[in-house]
Design goal:
By secondary structure, this protein is α+β, with helices and mostly antiparallel strands. Helix content is 33%, strand content 24%. It is built from 2 helices and 2 strands. A two-stranded parallel sheet has the order 1-2. Strand 1, helix 1 and strand 2 form a beta-alpha-beta unit. Helix 1 packs parallel to helix 2.
Amino acid sequence: EVVPEVGFDLVCANIQLDVLRGLVPLLAGKLAPGGRLVLAGLLAAQRAPMLAAAAAAGLTLYGEATEDEW
């Protein structure tokens, strides 16, 4: 069976900011309407640029978790 190109309810990515920032529009485009993109592996100091990239891709923050500087 072939995996579809789009229409995913959930996409997860655990990649460093410099790579992830460029992938966010592509990953957002793979989501089904109402789908969720889970981003991990980011430092707390990278929060603002990641949120800006997500917002530019039409995504909204629904929650977040931190541990120490992560």
